[in-house]
Structure formats: C-alpha cells, structure tokens
Amino acid sequence: MYPEQMVAPMRQDLVQEGFTELRTSDEVQSLLSKKEGTVLVVVNSVCGCAAGNARPGVKAAVKNAKTPTHITTVFAGVDKEAVATAREFMMPFPPSSPCIALFKDGEVVHMLERHHIEGRMAADIAANLVAAFDEFC
Length: 137
What we know:
The chain is α/β, with parallel strands linked by helices. About 45% of the residues lie in helices and about 20% in strands. A five-stranded mixed sheet has the order 1-3-2-4-5, sandwiched between helices. Strand 4 and strand 5 form a beta hairpin. Helix 2 (about 25-30) packs parallel to helix 4 (about 80-90) and helix 3 packs across helix 6. The N and C termini lie far apart (about 35 Å).
C-alpha cells in the first residue's frame, strides 16, 4: 500500500476535474450494481503511464459533449477493497492498472487495459474514449 501523502496529488488530479472517488467496496457496489445509465471507472495508479497518458487522456475525454452519467475513480495500491470490487465488475478483463472501463446499464461496454494505455499519447486515449462516449452515452 502506498502512503496517502504520496498519492494525494494523483487523486486530486482527477477529483479536481469532477471525478468521484470510490474508496470503499460498498461505494463501488452501490454505484455499479444499479445497472442503469453510464459509469466511467478509472483505476488510477502511481505508475508513469497513469500520469503521462491515462489521467491526462481521461481528463481531456470528459470535456466531450457526450459523457458518462458518472465519472469515478478507484486507486490501485491504496483503496484495496474498492479496487477489488471494481475489478469484479470488470470481469472477464484481467486486473490491470491503470485501466479505464465504461459501463452501460451495469455491463462493461468499453475497456482500456494497461497495454492499451502504455506507449500511447494522452490525445490517443482521449480520442478512443470520446468515440466510446459518443457511441454509448
């Protein structure tokens, strides 16, 4: 587990853009079990590809005209139970961090795993997500 003072700026990077932190298993369960509307879940991380690509990409994407009903984040390596519960909802995708999942009516309809994020520019990630938002939101 990472110390809170280390991850606080990384949390704030998304929270200040309007993302809701889901820090407990119950919070994740409550939102994702509703099976209505659209929910974006960003599994945030301390790794370089989260800072360089994933967070800037999702921040740009949520400025799109069409966006998910809820934009949320869980933090890998910190909020262990919340992340584990989110990953249960993301099955059959294997755990990865960072990753970005778009749910519609309780089902994953679009997923960016770590291997889709690493080595890609933030603008490419944003474009990928915007296309998913335009299709599903």
